[in-house]
Structure formats: C-alpha cells, structure tokens
C-alpha cells in the first residue's frame, strides 16, 4: 500500500443545527426534516436512509411546523408568519403566503389532504384550502376572548385533526380546545393542570395533541404529563406523569395502536394499546419502552409503520425500528443514527495544501501545517509550522451557502446561495493573501447545487437546480460563459454531483433519473450515459490516465465505468458477479469522496464517516467468509499466510469520525476528523440529571 | 387684688354670629372663628395683663369693627366667584391653544405628504411588480412582523431555557459519567483555556524580546 504521512485535521469547527420538525410520508417512504437554521432535508428511507434533497436555510426562517399534504406536497410554517410550499422537483420554494395571524406555531393537514389548518400567535385557528397550484384562505375559526379569571385566546401551539375530519383539537397554554370544523366554534375547552398533584407557578404549555378516531385526545405538556381526554364530554380520563421535564412531542401510528412521545431529557417513550388481560377485548394504553438515544431535548417524533423516528437539539436523527413490526430480523432492524452530513463540505487545493471549509454563513480557508521530522508507522510527528487560518469569508445576506469549491491551484474560490453566485480571485504574495471579487456574475448561475473546477483551473463547471449544467471559462481575472448543457431526458432529480477528469476532457454529472451523463468538454456534447441504477449516487470521481468513472451509490455499491470504452470495466463486472462482502453492504454511512493515487492506477481511495478504504484492484476480492477488516497481520507470520488473507479492500478505522479524506500527493494524506464530543460541547444546555453519588 | 379688665380682644361679634346662625358659612369665617376662639383662657392672667394694659392704651380705644355675618358671607361668595371665573377663563384659553396646535400639525403633515396623485400611483404599483427581481415592502409592516417574531422567539426561549427550567451546562452533563467511574476522572472540559488571554500574549511577547536581547548581549 505504501507509506503515507497523514495530516490529521481537527480544526474544522463543524456544528450541525438542531432538528426542529420531522414529517413522515407513508406513500413515498420519505422523511422531511427541518432544522433550526431553516434548512429542510428530505431523506429517502428506502434508499438506505440517504439524504437525497435539501432546501438551504435562511436566517429569518424559523420553521415551527412541517407537514405533507396530498400529492406529495410539502408545506412548512414558521415564526415569520408565512406558509411556504416546497417544490421537490425544481428544488426551490414555490411561494410563501402570509397567514396574517402573527407567528405561526402549528400546522396540520387534514386526513383527506385537501385542507390545511394553522394555529397562530394571536390565538386564531385558520383554515386554508389546498388548490392545485397554491393554497387559499377559507375561514377563521372562532377566537376566544380573554376572561378575567383565565386567559383564553393564547397562542395555539399544537393542532390535531380527528381522522374523520369533523373535529380538531388545539393545544394552547393551560388549556385545550376542541373545535367543530363545519361551524368553526369551540365545542369544549379543557383546562390542563399546571402540575401533577401540586401547585406550580409556571404555565403549563401543551406542546402536542393527538386526536384518535374513538374520540380520545392525547395531550403532552410541559409539566411532564401525558393525559388522555374524552372529547365527547370534555373530561380527563387518565393522566401519566412520565418525566420531570417537558414532554415536547407526540406522534401516533396510522393504526392507532401505538404512539411515541419525546421528552426534554432526551428519552423517547413508546406507548401501546394492550388488552387488559390476555383474553379480554378491553384495551388500555400502557407505557412499554423507554429509549435513551438523545442527550438533549427531543423536539419532534414521527411514527412510521415499522419504526420510531426522533430528532432534537442534539442534532442526531434516530430511527428505531420496532422489533415486533419488522418482518425479517436482519441488519435492517438495527438502530440508525444520522449525525454527519451526507455530502462533502470540504474542498482541497492540492498544490498549495489548502483546505476550504463550508459553514452555513461563512467559508474558512486554512493552510495545512508542515513537518520536517520522520518516524515509523504510528508515530505522531511534531509540527514545525502550525496550520494557518488564512481567510474567513462571510456571506452577504441572510441565506445559507449551498455549495462551495476551491480550484486545485488555489487561486479561485466560488460559492453559491439561493439568489447569488460568488466568484473570488486569490493572490498570494509571500505569506499574505489578497482577495478580489469578480463582479457581475450572470443570474443563471445562482442556486447552484454543485461547483467544480477543472484540474488546470481554467474552467468552472456549475450544476444549477434547474437541471442545466454550465461551463464557464476562467482566464486572468475574468470569466466567459462557454456553454450550457440543458437537462436531458428523464426527470430532474436534485443532489447533482459532478466529476471531471484530470486531463480535462470528460465531465460526468449525476442528476437525472436517467443515469449518470458523461459529456465531452472539448467538443461540448454528450458522450454517453451510464445505465440508471435505482439508488442515488453518493460520490463520483474519474481516474487519471485510464479515465475510469468510479461511482458509489447509497446502498454501498461501487461501480467502475470506462468512459473511452463506454462500458463497465472488467473489474467492475467481476465485483458485481461476486457481490460485495456483507459487512461492506451493512455500513450505515454513505461514501462521500473518492480519489486516486497519481502513480498507482490500481488503487481507489474512498471513505465514509467511520472508515477509509483503499481498494487494490490487483488483489483478489473477499467473499463472505473472509475477514473484511484485517489490519496488518503480525510480521512474524509467513509470507504465504499474508498473501492468502490479503484481499482487495484495505480498510482502516484509525481516523474517525471522518468528514473528508484525500491524497495530497504521493506520500501524503489529509484526514479531517470531527469528534462527536466537540460537537456536543457547543450545544445548548440540557436538562439536569440527578445521579446518586454526584 | 388683681382686677380683671374686660378683655377687648374677645370679640362679641363672633358670639353674635354664633347666636344668630349657629353655622359657619365659609372657610374664611371658620378661620376667623378659629383664630378668635384660639385665645388662651385667662388662667394665669397676671403678667400678660400688665403688658396688655400697656399695649391697649395705645391702640385699643375703639371697639373693633362690626362685621355682620351677611357681609362676610357676601364677601366670601365674591371671592369664590372670582376664583371660578379665573379657572374658567384659563380652561378656555388652554382649549384654544390646543386646537390651534392641532390644526398646525395637520397642516404640517399635509405639507410633508406627497401629493395625492403620486400616492395613488404607488398603491396601485405595489400590487403589480410581482415578477420583477425586487420586492417593495412597507417598513412599518416589517417592523411589526420583526417585533412579533422576536417576541415569539423570546417566549420559546423563556419556556425552554428561562427561569424555572432545570438546565445545566453541557460540561457538567457530560462529566456526570466521569464522577461515577470506579476511578474518578476530571470533568470533560476541565481546562478553561479562555482565561487571561491578554496576559498570555504579553508574556509571549516579553519572552521573545528578552530572548532577542539575550542573543545581542551574548554577542
């Protein structure tokens, strides 16, 4: 394999934003997740829980509610008082409609999917009709006036429709109201106790309500109680005190035999409807399982037919499949925790040893340190020159940065937000660097999903969210738009990835459902298309000299396609015939970056969050019986044994969690790690836990 | 024997007044009456009597003025009427002043506003530039929206992290496990590297300069 010096980088201060809402769509098995910075991500649960699309965030957008309506339409509402619809095909926001009720706290789609209900700050509940291209305000429900002895008319923090669509339950501060949809008047008003068997000065906030078809309303509130109410009479049936802190979210399964609640202590409780005795038909709700997968508040939960989904302030997205619902007890039934991003936020300039880190509102440029010492395997070498923070580039405006890139020579930096595209020219004199912005970027370059520079830094490739691919020629300090490839056949899918060959002739773009397109850059036309595969592409790269395109998919399959020959390579066919090792296929983080060794054409270097692997195509492939992860065997073993156990996949788990790994030159690697503790150290305060003896 | 002269200061008028009407009509009368009644009784009258005698010789040859109740009442009523008149006049003056000021303000505002025609154009134009690349927003609405959004965010922050919630720092939270190990370990963020930054920088600079000086003197 060779000896490498590894730059172990830990100064990328990446902190993801906390999760605020999740919404599960049963028909397409997709999960929409909205974060506190306004980003909305769509995860495809059938494609190995891969994040296939995302909508970048905005500073003023604080989403408080997310829901799916009929026809795969996604709506969100937030504290800026607007209801937004997301266009999942074009990857932009269709429109934002002001509800004129102040900040919106909750939103729920009717069971039929044709109406939308929002609960506002001023205590009003508004009904909207969903039309084919927009939503239309229908009417207001009765607003309750504030009385002297009790403050009705408070903000509506949670809403739930009765499955038949005739009544709704609205949770507010210290009370819950039941409305009749047809007349819009309040049928019952139930006052919630501030504390279970006690008196408390703090107001009791009803964080979540759920309306079941038998008329039971389940409410969760900030006093730590889960309460069952009868909506026909407006009375409390049962009360469970489950936590010392707020219970912040509730989600009911479609069959209404189980529901899940999340608390501020990070615990998720599963409640199930079980018969009272084994033969009776009478059933009651029993708290069955606690799960402690979070450290901070669990602000949102969702219930899919087979799994419990939870997310909160500690930024993890946790999928807990329920054993009794899972058919086959294989690796699919394991816990899945998504913490690290599914795309690459770091780009590298190999010539000048620079790293560009992408944050939500700024970019950081660092120069790697250097050392003159040498050592043996496993040594930590002292730095003769520390890593240098060269540039801190803040973006103008409230929008988040979608993607960014630095050219291999280090003289160009480009990044894109929803409304603008920025290109900067860098000048290096001795140890100083100066920045100059290229003004008057054309409008069609904005909202770029992926930016890539060619190897000689003369061309810029931009994939926009409309499906078009633009080629821009860079020279000196100016640019010239060369060509735009329009979307080919097949529906435009988001998450377009680009790869360019080191000799500058070929450009590969994944982004349509028709497969990966390969374009001839010199002749500016389409060369060929890799056949479509039903799982999305997670990483792509073109090898030098051989011009083989290596593609990694979200189900952990890796393909190698020869561009000049327009067919899969022999090695790739062999791998597909034999199949990958089962442990390789069971990895739960996607491969985010692929790179090659300049002098060794048989090596492919790829990595995911918890391992990096060098695939040696000259060695035999492992079958399911061989040990996949075999670090160096002890040197006193004979050569024969070593040759027998060696196989093509050389996996190392020394550096983890890995955000980025690349080959800087023949003898140097750079590995950017992000320890989980460093992320947790910058999160908001959690609830205090009292442990005996501390 | 001390002879007690009839004390002239004890006015018979007030006694008359009391006998006549038996009621006090106005404040002024009451005041007078109080003054008159407030005379000390002639318990120990020996010494003052002599003084009085001397003083009385000069002034007190005539009887005090006779003040009928009716006249006093009339006088009081006059006073009252005069006071009421002045108050009424003041009020009307103030009202006039306020009215004039209001009119002045309206005039000024009218002058400040653009002529009606331009305003009409603006209101109709704001609905038509949907497809342009800019968006015209009323600042007043935006301020109101911002303030409401801020209030809402403050509410959420208060209810989750405000007083009464049982929150702790991340450091303490992660260090709980360390405290319960069989061999107790330090907290997760034990060192506070952020203290004395200025002091540390100064020390570094001083050390560098000292080294340079040392090198020079060695040579």
Question: How would you concisely characterize the structure shown here?
Answer:
Helices cover 4% and strands 47% of the residues of chain A. The N and C termini of chain B lie far apart (124 Å).
Main features:
heterodimer; A: 694 residues; mainly beta; four-stranded antiparallel β-sheet; 4 helices; 55 strands; globular; B: 219 residues; mainly alpha; 67% helix; elongated
| Computed structural class of chain A | mainly beta
Number of helices of chain A: 4
Poorly predicted ranges of chain B:
10-56
Number of helices of chain B: 8
Largest interface: A-B, 35 and 25 residues
Q: Would you spell out the secondary-structure blueprint of this structure?
A:
The complex is a heterodimer of chains A (694) and B (219).
Chain A: E1 5-9, E2 19-25, E3 30-35, E4 40-44, E5 50-55, E6 63-69, E7 73-78, E8 82-87, E9 92-98, E10 104-109, E11 115-120, E12 125-130, E13 135-140, E14 158-161, E15 167-171, E16 175-180, E17 186-191, E18 206-211, E19 216-221, E20 225-230, E21 235-241, E22 247-252, E23 258-263, E24 267-275, E25 283-292, E26 300-303, E27 307-311, E28 317-321, E29 336-338, E30 346-349, E31 354-358, E32 362-367, E33 388-394, E34 403-406, E35 412-416, E36 421-429, E37 432-438, E38 448-453, E39 459-464, E40 469-475, E41 478-485, E42 492-500, E43 506-512, E44 515-520, E45 525-529, E46 537-542, E47 548-553, E48 558-562, E49 567-568, H1 570-578, H2 582-585, E50 593-596, E51 603-608, E52 611-616, H3 639-645, E53 649-652, E54 658-665, E55 668-673, H4 676-680
Chain B: H1 12-20, H2 27-37, H3 46-59, H4 69-112, H5 116-128, H6 139-161, H7 170-180, H8 197-218
């Amino acid at each position: 394999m060779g000896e490498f010096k590894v730059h172990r980088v830990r100064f990328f201060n990446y902190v993801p934003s906390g999760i605020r809402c999740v919404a599960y769509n049963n028909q397409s098995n997709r999960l929409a997740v909205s974060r506190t910075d306004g980003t909305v991500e769509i995860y495809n649960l059938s494609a190995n829980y891969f994040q296939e699309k995302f909508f970048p965030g905005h500073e003023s957008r604080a989403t408080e509610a997310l829901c799916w309506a009929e026809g795969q339409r996604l709506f969100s509402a937030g504290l800026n008082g607007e209801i937004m619809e997301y266009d999942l095909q074009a990857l932009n926001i269709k429109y934002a409609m002001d509800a004129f009720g102040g900040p919106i706290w909750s939103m729920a789609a009717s069971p039929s999917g044709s109406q939308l209900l929002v609960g506002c700050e001023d205590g009003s509940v508004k009904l909207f009709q969903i039309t084919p291209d927009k939503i239309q305000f229908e009417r207001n429900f009765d607003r309750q006036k504030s009385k002297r002895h009790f403050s009705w008319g408070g903000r509506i923090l949670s809403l739930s429709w009765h499955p038949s669509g005739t009544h709704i339950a609205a949770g507010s501060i210290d009370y819950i109201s039941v409305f009749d949809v047809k007349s819009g008047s309040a049928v019952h008003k139930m006052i919630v106790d501030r504390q279970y068997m006690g008196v408390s000065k703090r107001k009791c906030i009803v964080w979540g309500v759920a309306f079941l078809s038998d008329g039971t309303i389940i409410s969760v509130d900030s006093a730590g109680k889960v309460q069952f109410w009868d909506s026909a009479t407006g009375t409390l049936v049962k009360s469970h005190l489950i936590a010392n802190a707020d219970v912040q979210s509730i989600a009911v399964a479609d069959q209404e035999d189980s529901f899940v609640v999340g608390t501020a202590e990070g615990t998720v409780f599963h409640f199930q409807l079980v018969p009272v005795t084994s033969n009776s038909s009478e059933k009651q709700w029993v708290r069955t399982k606690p799960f402690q997968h979070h450290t901070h508040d669990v602000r949102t939960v969702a219930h899919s037919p087979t799994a419990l989904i939870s997310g909160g302030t500690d930024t993890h997205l946790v999928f807990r499949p329920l054993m009794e619902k899972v058919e086959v007890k294989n690796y699919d039934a394991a816990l899945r925790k998504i913490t690290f991003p599914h795309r690459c936020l770091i780009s590298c300039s190999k010539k000048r040893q620079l790293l560009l880190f992408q944050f939500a509102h700024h970019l950081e440029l660092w120069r790697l340190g250097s050392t003159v010492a040498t050592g043996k395997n496993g040594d930590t070498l002292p730095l003769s020159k520390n890593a240098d923070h060269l540039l801190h580039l803040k973006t103008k405006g409230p929008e988040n940065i979608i993607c960014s890139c630095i050219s291999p020579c280090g003289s160009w930096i480009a990044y894109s937000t929803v409304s603008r595209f920025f290109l900067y020219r860098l000048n290096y004199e001795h140890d100083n660097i100066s920045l100059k912005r290229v003004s008057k970027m054309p409008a069609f370059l904005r909202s770029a999903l992926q930016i890539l520079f060619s190897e000689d830094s003369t061309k810029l490739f931009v994939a926009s969210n409309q499906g078009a691919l633009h080629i821009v020629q860079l020279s000196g300090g100016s640019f010239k738009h060369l060509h735009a490839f329009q979307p080919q056949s097949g529906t435009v899918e988001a998450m377009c990835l680009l790869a360019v060959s080191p000799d500058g002739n070929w450009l590969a773009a994944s982004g349509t459902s028709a497969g990966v397109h390969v374009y001839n850059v010199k002749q500016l036309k389409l060369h060929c298309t890799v056949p479509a595969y039903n799982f999305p592409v997670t990483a792509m790269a073109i090898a030098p000299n051989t011009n083989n395109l290596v593609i990694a998919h979200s189900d952990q399959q890796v393909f190698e396609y020869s561009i000049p020959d327009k067919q899969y390579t022999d090695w790739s066919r062999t791998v597909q015939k034999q199949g990958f090792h089962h442990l390789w296929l069971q990895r739960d983080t996607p491969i985010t970056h692929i790179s090659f060794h300049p002098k060794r054409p048989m090596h492919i270097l790829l990595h995911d969050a918890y391992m990096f692997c060098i695939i040696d195509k000259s060695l035999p492939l492992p079958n399911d019986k061989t040990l996949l992860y075999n670090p160096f065997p002890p040197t006193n073993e004979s050569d024969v044994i070593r040759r027998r156990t060696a196989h093509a996949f050389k996996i190392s788990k020394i550096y983890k969690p890995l955000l980025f790994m690349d080959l800087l030159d023949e003898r140097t690697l750079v590995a950017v790690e992000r320890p989980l503790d460093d992320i947790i150290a910058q999160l908001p305060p959690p609830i205090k836990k009292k442990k005996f003896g501390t | 024997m001390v002879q007690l002269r009839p004390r002239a200061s004890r006015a018979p008028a007030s006694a008359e007044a009391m006998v006549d009407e038996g009621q006090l009509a106005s404040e002024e009368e009451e005041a007078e009456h109080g003054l008159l009644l407030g005379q000390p009784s002639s318990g120990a009258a020996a010494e003052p009597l002599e003084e009085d005698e001397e003083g009385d010789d000069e002034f007190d040859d005539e009887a005090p003025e006779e003040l009928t109740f009716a006249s006093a009442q009339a006088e009081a009523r006059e006073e009252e009427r005069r006071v009421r008149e002045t108050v009424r006049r003041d009020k009307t003056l103030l009202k006039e002043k306020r009215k004039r000021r209001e009119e002045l303000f309206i005039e000024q505002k009218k002058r400040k506003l653009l002529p009606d025609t331009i305003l009409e154009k603006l209101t109709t134009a704001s609905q038509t530039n949907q497809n342009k690349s800019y968006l015209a927003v009323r600042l007043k609405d935006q301020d109101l929206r911002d303030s409401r959004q801020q209030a809402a965010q403050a509410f959420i922050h208060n209810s989750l992290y405000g007083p009464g919630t049982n929150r702790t720092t991340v450091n303490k939270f992660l260090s709980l496990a360390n405290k319960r190990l069989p061999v107790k370990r330090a907290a997760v963020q034990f060192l506070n590297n952020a203290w004395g930054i200025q002091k540390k920088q100064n020390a570094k600079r001083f050390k560098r300069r000292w080294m340079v000086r040392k090198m020079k003197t060695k040579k």
